[in-house]
Amino acid sequence: MAxxxxxAAVSGEELPPAVAWLILVxxxxxxxxxxxxxxxxxxxxxxxxxxxxxxxxxxxASDENWLLMHRVAQPWAVAGGAVMALVAPTGxxxxxxxxxxxxxAAGTLLSLxxxxxxxxxxxxxxxxxxxxxxxxxxxxxxxxx
Length: 145
What we know:
Elements: H1 2-11, H2 17-42, H3 63-87, H4 90-93, H5 97-131
Helix pairs in contact: 1-5, 2-3, 3-5
Pfam family, one: SdpI
Keywords: Membrane, Transmembrane, Transmembrane helix
InterPro entries: SdpI/YhfL
C-alpha cells in the first residue's frame, strides 16, 4: 500500500479510498498506542518491559526511572498522539495524491517532535535526580554515567 501511495504522490493521481482508510486507521492506532502506553506507565499501570513504553538505558535502569520518565514525558506524548490523530483524516480532505503524501509525511514527522522533547525532558529529570542521589542512582542500579 505504501508503494501505491508513493506512486500516487509522484504522479499526482487521485488517492484510492482504500489507501486513505489504511492511513487513517494506522495513524489513529499509532497515536492511541503512544498516548495509552505513556499514560499507563506514568500512572504506574505499565511496568518496565521490553515491548511498550519509553525504553532508554536510563528509563529501564530502575522502576523509579521508568515512572519518572513517563510522568515527565506524558504531556508531550499526548501532544504527539494528538498530532497523529489530526493528520489521520487528511486522505479524506484531499483526493490529490501529492498533497496527501506531503501532509501525511510532514504531519507524521511533526508528531515525533513532542515525543522527542518528552524523552529529552524525562532523561534530564532522571539525570537531575541521580545527581541529587535520588532513587535509582545507587551503585548497582544499572544506571550508566
